[in-house]
Amino acid sequence: MEKQAAILMLEDGTTFHGTAIGKIGTSAGEICFNTGMTGYQEIYTDPSYYGQIIVNTTSHIGNYGTLSQEDESTQVQIRGLVVKKFSNTFSRKTSEGSLQEYLERANIVGIADIDTRKLVRHIRQQGAMNAIISSETDDIEKIKEKLEATPSMEGLELSSLVSTKERYFMGDPHAPIKVAVLDIGIKKSILENMTERGIYCKVFPAKTSYEQMKKWNPDGFFISNGPGDPSVMSYAVDTVKEILADDMPVFGICLGHQILALASGISTYKMHHGHRGLNHPVKNLVTGLSEITSQNHGFTVSKEDVENSDNVEVTHINLNDDTVEGIRVKDKKAFSVQYHPESSPGPHDSRYLFDQFIDMIRSNN
Q: 41-63, pLDDT tens digit by residue?
């Protein structure tokens, strides 16, 4: 059976020709790459990737099929997919179906059979930018028009689009610790890491006020990961400011880390091409130990601002580029990390941070 042609065009005009995967159609968004060797399904369902086109740098994608329990949210969050070799067949006995079927059900447009190594080198050199995939037309001018109409990720507020609409609970209602979770794009594995440690979670929509969360009388607050530009999320920043003012324990991950920074007077900025993968080395400056981490972010906090701050200090640093990977608010029970300690997928080096959060809550009770 002859494969259908597809086109990938980047914002700077760079164009790749390949074959169609997933749904036949056209889709645009910010293009970024993930260097993880495994876990493609967890990546595609991570709300932090909402609105983005993902390039998988692993040569073969789809070869172990899909399994519903590996979804990190209720739907596929990416806007498009770029791979080198795409496998319609899969070898894992427990798989429920092929990745092609999975992408078709989710209406995800993709392209395969292109030189992803060349593409990733280009993004690393030129920086993050928008891109478009089309498998329904080869009219370059039409494709270019649609690409030009795609908004930049900088300045986009996306968390309210992926957050839960209704409050819900996870864990044992009789658990000794209650944590209010502000869902600005949370992954299922984060909640599982807390409930497995004896935390009863109540998950709140992104724009819930501190006053509303406080009514549940939680022992601590968790600010989740999520998509978009943190600098335009004043609603979440104001909520965290109130948590800090009330001196309640708070732990933030990824976007939640950036929100805690903004609430503490530290600015954020868009990175050249971000960190996305499972092998990012981070040093814990408190213990002196290093950990291999799972990461997914295109924005980060200003190291200069933290160094000039009287009340915020760096706790973790990225060993590749010296960017801030963790902070602590000195006079509060508040800390955060830029990476993903739940590590689904990825190494489990950083799961101690959930235990650290529990210890902080217990010392406050």
A: 999 999 999 999 999 999 899 99
Tell me the sheet residues that pair with 30.
52, 130
pLDDT digits (tens, 9 = 90+) for 218-229: 999 999 999 999
Contact 255, 225 (CB under 8 A): yes
Of 284, 265, 235, residue with least CA distance to 331:
265
Q: Which two tokens stand for residue 174?
A: 């009789």
Which one, of 106, 113, 102, 137, lies nearest residue 25 by Cα?
A: 137
Please tell me whether residue 295 adopts helix, strand or coil conformation: strand
How far is Cα 253 from Cα 183, in angstroms, rounded to an integer? 11
The residues assigned a catalytic role are: 254, 340, 342
Give me 228's structure tokens: 């978009």
| Residue-wise burial string across 279-290, b where 16 or more C-beta atoms lie within 10 A, e elsewhere | ebebbbeeeeee
CA distance 181 to 197: 15
Q: Which region, left, alpha or beta, applies to residue 198 given φ > 0 means left and ψ of -120 to 50 means alpha?
A: left
C-alpha 206 chain-centroid distance: 15
Domains recognised in the chain with CATH numbers: 5-148 (3.50.30.20), 159-364 (3.40.50.880)
Token duo for residue 21: 């995967």
